[in-house]
Design goal:
Elements (H helix, E strand, L loop, with lengths): L2 E12 L2 E12 L3 E5 L6 H8 L7 E6 L2 E2 L5 H7 L1 E3 L12 H8 L5 H8 L1 H9 L16 H13 L5 E5 L7 H16 L3 E5 L3 H7 L2 E6 L2 E6 L1 H6 L1 H6 L12
Parallel strand pairs: 3-8, 3-9, 6-7, 7-8
Antiparallel strand pairs: 1-2, 1-4, 4-5, 9-10
Helix pairs in contact: 4-5
The structure holds adenosine-5'-diphosphate and magnesium ion (MG).
Length: 248
């Protein structure tokens, strides 16, 4: 496998808080990679820097060897890095299809029909089990379904890699299971994922490989089985917390 996303030595401070400090990791093309770590370890800041919502103080981000560092959110998205947010951003009064069409506004006219035609939009909604709700307003969706819609809005842009920030947070266990299935299926179709998630059972079951952050840097990287038993990781979580959400 080759590296799709390379994050090298990122640093970022907010006043006196060093949110990222020598943060480095890579995501292989075709992977479902996880990024975990205690609260405040810098996961969301890493996502913000990678996707151009925050400017790093130092370090670089490469996508397929191409410099992404310093690009704004629109440019990063056009280069092929999509993301969802911890808090969903869909329009409640618009239907699901209309929400998709809002996203087409910035797309060149020539590609608009190809990317946002009815048929493709319905296929996209179908890929997360929402096709039957295409004409319902987004406000009628459950919180979890809104998160799935947000994933669809990102998918529509045909990203090479999608960064998901706590996709399972606040959604019911049945939908969490389905979400895992959708991510796996989309991955088979060629989408690479980088997932930040607190639900350890979910992240360990879903990801091929996991990077662990502590105080702004990646302290361990490996397969879920390795990560589970890595003393540095257990230390970072002060023991115990890694088992959160596990059936006992
Ligand atoms: P995580 O997502 O792993 O919980 P964050 O990246 O949100 O961690 O936060 C890392 C650290 O940076 C925390 O100490 C947090 O309080 C701080 N931080 C994040 N964003 C900001 C900001 N915009 N202004 C000030 N401090 C911030
Ligand atoms: Mg966060």
């Amino acid at each position: 496998m080759t590296a799709l996303l390379e994050v090298g030595d990122l640093s970022k401070s907010f006043g006196g808080v060093q949110a990222l400090s020598g943060c480095s990791f890579t995501v292989d093309d075709g992977a479902i990679a996880g990024l975990i770590g205690p609260n405040g370890s810098g996961k969301t800041t890493a996502f913000n820097v990678i996707t151009g919502y925050e400017r790093a103080d130092g370090g670089r981000v490469l996508l397929r060897g191409r410099e992404v560092t310093g690009s704004g959110p629109d440019r990063v998205c056009a280069l092929g890095i999509g993301r969802t947010f911890q808090i969903t951003r869909v329009f409640g009064r618009l239907t699901l299809l209309e929400n998709l069409r809002v996203g087409s506004a910035g797309v060149p006219r020539a590609r608009r029909r190809e990317l946002y035609g009815d048929r493709r939009c319905l296929e996209l909604l179908d890929s997360v089990g929402l096709a039957s709700l295409a004409h319902a307003t987004a406000g009628a969706l459950s919180y979890g379904q809104r998160k799935l819609l947000e994933l669809v809005l990102v998918l529509a842009q045909e990203p090479r890699i999608i960064l998901l920030d706590e996709p399972a947070g606040g959604i019911n266990p049945t939908l969490v299971n389905q979400l895992g299935g959708y991510i796996r299926e989309l991955n088979k179709q060629g989408v690479t994922f980088l997932v930040v998630e607190h639900d350890m059972e979910f992240v360990m079951g879903l990801c091929d490989v996991i990077s662990v952050m502590e105080r702004g840097a990646v302290i361990a990287h490996g397969a879920p089985e390795q990560i589970r038993t890595d003393p540095r990781v257990l230390d970072a979580y002060l023991g115990g917390a890694l088992d959160e959400g596990e059936p006992s």
